[in-house]
Amino acid sequence: MRRPFIAGNWKMYKTNSEAEETIRYLKDKLKEIENVDIMIAPPYTALTIAAGITAGSNIYLGAQNVHYENEGAYTGEISPPMLVSAGCRYVIIGHSERRQYFGCTDKDVNLRLKSAVRSGLKTVVCIGEKLEERESGKTFDILSSQLSESLKNLSEEEKNMLIVAYEPVWAIGTGKTATPDIAEEAHKYIRGKIADMYGRDFASGVRILYGGSVKPDNIRDLMAQDNIDGALVGGASLDAESFSKIVNF
Ligand code: PEP
Predict the structure, then answer these.
(1) Count of alpha carbons within 13 Å of 107, Cβ hemisphere only?
(2) Which of 89, 150, 168, 220 is deepest in the core (most CB within 10 A)?
(3) Rounded CA separation 209/10 (Å)
(4) Which of 97, 129, 133, 167 is catalytic?
(5) Which residue's CA is minimally distant from atom 7 of ligand 1?
(6) Regions of the chain where pLDDT drops below 70
(7) pTM, 2 dp
(8) Catalytic: 95?
């Protein structure tokens, strides 16, 4: 049985005082939730404040990206040990905005995943096709090559720290959610591909999240699908009330 996982990606939103207000609300509102893993990924600047507020609660902290070196002359970057020291348990890797605007490749995703796990971080690896790729019938080819490269040569430990997020790029921040059927078709394909790479046993246990305009009014139908184990929520996670509703699907 795969335990539901609902994650909020705050992107480049919220100052520290805004983050504090949202997290205090979430902590109170979600304190009774026991059957869902909850993670929020605030901007780096709010991580330490978030860690203080969420300590001992059922809300885990994640970062939105990570470098693969532990330290070095990489101005503007943040390393896995730094995230751990700021209170993170998770990190999102290969988000489509990192791929689109900052040149993140599948090879980078694989390096970052391995490095993050060495520091004890669980990883949420994002994959997904662009609109033109879907329209030209290439969705499964794209997912296949993203998975082959991003999840290449994973050790047992790396596999155990893995969560996959299917985020069709055309559905992110656009208000266009994939229908539950479209999302399920992709999730089923992804689980099958992971089974080809690492065996059925592993594939049947790995959690695959859906991301792309998830809202309180569509989460339930998405979660009703056999291969959808949770959600990576962008816009709707910024509002504490709507994120709480999503967690309470
Ligand atoms: C995301 O940023 O991962 C995302 C899915 O965004 P949104 O929910 O706003 O589409």
Answers:
(1) 1
(2) 168
(3) 16
(4) 167
(5) 234
(6) none
(7) 0.97
(8) yes
Q: Which of 95, 97, 129, 187 is catalytic?
A: 95
Q: Is the CB of 242 under 6 A from ligand 1?
A: no
pLDDT at 177: 81
Structure tokens at 46: 């709010």
Q: What digits encode the pLDDT tens for the residues 82-139?
A: 999 999 999 999 999 999 999 999 999 999 999 999 999 999 999 999 999 999 999 9
Q: What angle do CA 174, 121, 232 make, to 5 degrees?
A: 20
135 is known as an active-site residue:
no
CA geometry: angle 226, 227, 228, nearest 5 deg: 100
Ligand 1 pocket member 172 (CB < 6 A): yes
Decide: 109 and 93 in contact? Cβ < 8 Å: yes
Residue range(s) defining the domain that contains residue 242: 5-247
Number of domains in the chain: 1
What is the 202 CA–ligand 1 centroid distance (Å)? 27
CATH no. for residue 125?
A: 3.20.20.70
